[in-house]
Amino acid sequence: MTPDQIIVTVGGLAAIGLVAWFFWFKRSVGVQASAVSGGYQEQMVLVKGGYTPDAIRVKAGKPVRLLFRREETAACSEQVVLPDFGKSAALPTGQVVPLEFLPSEPGEYEFTCQMGMLRGRIIVEAA
Amino acid sequence: MRKWWFAAVIAGPTMVLSYPWLIPGLADVFPRGSEQLWWLWVAMGVAALAVLAYSGNQFFTGAWEALRHRQANMHTLIAIGTGTAWVYSTIALLFPQMFPSAEMTDVYYDVTVVVTALVVLGMAMEVKARGRTSEAIEKLIGLQPKTARVVRRGTEVEIPVDEVVVGDVVVVRPGSKIPVDGIVVEGSSAVDESMITGESMPVAKGPDDVVIGATMNTTGSLRFRATKVGADTALATIIRMVGDAQASKVPIQRIVDVVSGYFTPAVLILAISGFVIWFDFGPAPAFAYATIVAVTTLIIACPCALGMATPMALTTGVGLAATHGILIRSGDALQAAKKLDTIVLDKTGTITVGKPAVTDVVPADGFEVDAILAFAAAAERDSEHPLAAAIVDGAAERGLTPLEPTRFEAVPGHGVRAWLGERRVLIGKRAFLEAAGVRAGDLEDDATRLADEGKTPVFVALDDRAAGVVAIADPVKADSEAAIAALRKLGLQVVMITGDNRRTADAIARRVGIDRVLAEVLPQDKAHEVRKLQLEGRAVAMVGDGINDAPALAAADVGFAIGTGTDVAIEASDVTLIAGSLRGVVSAIRISRATMANVHQNLLGAFVYNGLGLPVALGLLYPLFGILLSPILAALAMSFSSVTVISNANRLKRFKLAEVGT
Q: Is-contact B488 B456, C-beta < 8 A?
């Protein structure tokens, strides 16, 4: 192997490692949804290339209201789906769209765009 | 489309001028290695940068936003692919001394520009086609009338439909839409409910009949009292249910979601691997080949085709069903409906009209017909059983006024006991009378004969003596027989379930072409019977309309609530048929099968496309056949793969013309 081949090979392997780590090994702790009137737990979620925050911590047994605000026109994110709670909503650009559900069991539940490209997690903790 | 036109206008000359030495006439003007060619390529580099900045900026901003969330998507792949081609070309142009041979200093601005143009075009076509998949729900939303004429303080006023409140008396003129749901208080007309129920025949409406908002009044004038407004109307509920179902996930999608989650980073890894392998083992100029292979790999991969395969088919299929008055609650229901092999039909209200009426009264010796009916009606007047209503109505039709019972006891599934002063009345099945020590005697033969005619015989005993048999029949719906034949043709075993006695049930079943009958089933045991069929290894659908069907609807793999039914049944069901015809079940199963077939075609297409395209892009055919895919062809294939998936989903809309209906 020539020195430039060795450099490219090592660089390539490092890049592969970086890609795998960067995309697959992220684990955010999540943002705690804040308690509001009516016993709801509420969190604003910004939709722009992904969900911010993409991990939301809530307590089991209390209703949750996620307020989605989409700030892009890409068709990918025009709908949000919470399959485990049977909930979904269209997200017109620039509007705040509430999505309410009641998490009864602790665990991790996904919310995604309709095509599953954008992903977020709802971490339901025991009350 | 302006972005596409800009890229397309630049793409033409860029493609021609990238290889001038191959074009007669241009070879002399721009010879290889000449200063003129260098300046030409500089101009192309600037033009390509303009294309990236204007037409392709969405890929770069999309990729950056995704990257900030540590996510990758189609934008990431296109941005890296086109960006790499531009950067490589610019380095080759500005610093040719960095490359060991002159051949490596060729530029790929054509790749940058043409790929951007093709992907932008593909996305525009995709948006247009996606719009068509959701036409059904837009059509439903468009049905909502804007205004209503209501009576306020004794005068008719026209107000926005949002301001109608429950209890308002609404006036509907001929040719006007009915604005909200309600019950007719005055007038008569025929109402076209096809937009909601899928039934093409107008329905006659008069006092006490229910009218549905958004349906069209045809000939007469109606006044009705509003019972449901705003988000509670049938139309609003339908729109909500269809929207939720379209956004739900078919179980198979969960597997696809897992693949999608890994897909884009995996493509990045494949592109890097391809680069390294071609650089280490590929032919000269290795760096150029390695770059082209990496760029082609990034561009040919189409995560969108994979991601859209299921939702697009689901959106179209659920929308198609809605236009036929069939509300499919979720993707799970759709997938389960495709696998059904057995269908259980509740008799009353599903196969039959659900309005039983007295057809015969056979008195025992020493009893009069009117007396039997009067006593029976008196005993049944407090009962909620559908047969009780038939007896009470039958007595009323003969002008009999039933007495008020002093005491009343219902024994669900068996009969009733009532006391009319000193007199004791028993009404119910033969076994119920026998348990009370009453012998049916000769009446048993009459009951058998009536049951053989498909009528339900009810024994009446007065003061512990069998007094007579009242026969009640519920007419079979006009299209039940055809629908059952169609269900059998679909390969389903059709089972009838009823609380009726065996003979009556068999007679009805014979008439409509059903060969398996579950008769004398108590209301609370219907769910148990469904589970027993499931234990036989069958995938069971249950079709019913009443409150007592709700547990069975919930227990079945797919519960169909027939829309003339109760809210409880609809709530417990997976599919709601707004119209009361069994033909809706046939259509629902056909649509489910067609939609799931479409999902599988799309998924297969997306997997095969990516599964074949990626190895070819990586150059797997090069060692054998010397074939290396051009990034431009890769862009063409990628753009059309998404469009193909959506077009295939849209194909479902044509299904109704050819196959729905019996």
A: no
Structure tokens at B472: 């009640």
Cβ-in-10-Å burial (0-12, 13-18, 19+) of B455 comes to buried
Helix, strand, coil percent values for chain A (each to nearest 5): 25, 40, 35
Could you report the per-residue pLDDT of B223-279, keeping only the tens digit for each? 999 999 988 888 888 888 887 787 777 778 778 878 887 889 999 999 999 999 999
Which residue carries 């659908």 as its tokens? B541
**Which residue in B221, B224, B236, B212 sits closest to B168, CA to CA?**
B224
Under a CB-based contact definition with an 8 Å cutoff, are residues B61 and B55 in contact? no
Distance, CA of B107 to CA of B109 (rounded, Å) = 6
Which of B106, B101, B129, B120 minimizes the C-alpha distance to B59? B120
Whole-complex ipTM = 0.84
**Cα separations (Å) of B217 from B175, B185, B190, B214, B577?**
5, 15, 6, 9, 22
DSSP B588: H
Query: Which residues of chain A approach chain B closer than 8 Å at the C-beta?
Result: 1, 5, 8-9, 12-13, 15-16, 19-20, 22-24, 26, 48-52, 54, 72, 74-76, 79, 81, 83, 86-90, 110, 112, 114-119
Residues of B in contact with A3 (CB under 8 A): none
Report the candidate in B363, B358, B359, B364 with the shortest Cα–Cα distance to residue B377: B358
For the full predicted model, state whether its pTM sits above 0.95: no
